[in-house]
């Protein structure tokens, strides 16, 4: 049975934005599973995700402390519709990332990560898919903020879409 997914990371609320963009909240409310790769900044945002998500798979990031580190793991794993997911905030330098992560996560089909705020979708020679949804609130050197939606279905990740976040006014 197809499972709808939302991937996000580096939300940094309330430091980089007062709230998440409405389209992302709408996607979160509609998704079967929400995956967040860390840098929440405030446990109040985690509370909102838990209230709005049917299922949340999440980790803490380097900017998360106190209650966030008490409530979230450094690495999360989930099997969803035949796909083995791992979630971690940091993967290190972009150079050599695919090989390094394939060695670190050998029993994983999709590795979701954050930290750089740079959208990323590649596949290692081993078949490990690496996905960074970017940041919906802090685009850094990117043209716009982003988050990702996809569908897990019979062991495949399909219909993956990087959504551009409209600029704040």
From TrEMBL:
Matching InterPro entries: Calcineurin-like_PHP_lpxH, Metallo-depent_PP-like, Phosphodiesterase_MJ0936/Vps29
Protein name: Phosphoesterase
Pfam families associated with the record: Metallophos_2 (PF12850)
Keywords: Metal-binding
Sequence ranges assigned to domain Calcineurin-like phosphoesterase in this UniProt record: 5-150
Reported cofactor(s): a divalent metal cation
Enzyme Commission designation: 3.1.4.-
Enzyme class: hydrolase
Source organism (scientific name): Blastococcus brunescens
Presence of the UniProt keyword Metal-binding in the record: yes
Recorded family membership: Belongs to the metallophosphoesterase superfamily. YfcE family.
Keyword Transport: no
